[in-house]
Write a structure and sequence with these properties.
Shape: elongated
Bound molecules: zinc ion
Number of strands: 4
Number of helices: 12
Structural class: alpha+beta
Order of helices and strands: HHEEEHHHEHHHHHHH
Radius of gyration: 29 Å
Length: 308
Amino acid sequence: MAPFASHPSGAPDAEPPAPLASHRSGAPAAEPLRAPGGDAVDSELARRWWSRRFLDLLESFGIGSRLQRGREYAAAGQVLELDVEPGIVLAKVQGTMFTPYKVRIRPAVFSEHQWRRAEKAIASRALMLAKLLAGEMPSDIEEVLAGAKLALLPVSYEELRADCSCPDEANPCKHTAAAYYVLAEHLDGDPFALFTLRGRTQQELLQSLRARRMKAAGGLSVGERAVQQRDAERKTQVPLTQLIDSFWRAGPQLAQLQVSPLASEFPDALLRRLGPLPAAEDGGNLSEPLAPIYAHLAAAAERRALSG
Ligand SMILES: [Zn+2]
């Protein structure tokens, strides 16, 4: 692994055999130095589907055994710092040397063109857009982005382009592996960091999505449209004092109202229009169990209306 920062010359500092290390003056100890400032990761990390999936993907890349070496490191709090910036994760991991090792992970970022595709795909789904704007991670986000030929999570280990300043040839070395675990824990609390890894901060993404939504709504926000509509209505309204005699009388418009008790051909049309409703605890589509209920209620209402 190519070091990217200089570190004290001389002694090999990655996992030296314990007996040798103890005899060499100034040589690193076999055990990593304690890192009181480090954040020990929770033993039950990756509680959320996206962070679990991140770790599962890493394991699926055939680095499972090397990944495990970092787990204890992470659990012991050896990762002193972890910063997630657009397209780059920087971590400092306390190893056997006095100076912590520097880990750098540089996932492939989306190009401008790819981001436009991603945003277009997201913005075309009202529910997904609403969820993201509310700070939630939609469970079908990967599916939707896959439809735009994009992968939110890494598709290969090489794509993560990780390196560490330690001399260990293995990739991931245990410092990098520890950084992955702490990154997974970070993702638990901040799902938008997944987008940051692909090059957009939460603020940038949401700003862009809001702009798309406003454009689709004719350049006005929902609030602005409501104000505009209210002002237009006010102009045509007759003051209440002039309506006292006729206020409770039904106007000719009542006759124009058409109410059909017949069930629609597609009673679950509204559900279909909303798209998948990933509200179920297991992330399943709530529309599926609701659709037959809508159909049943529509048929029952029709029977009741026609029998009366
Ligand atoms: Zn390392």
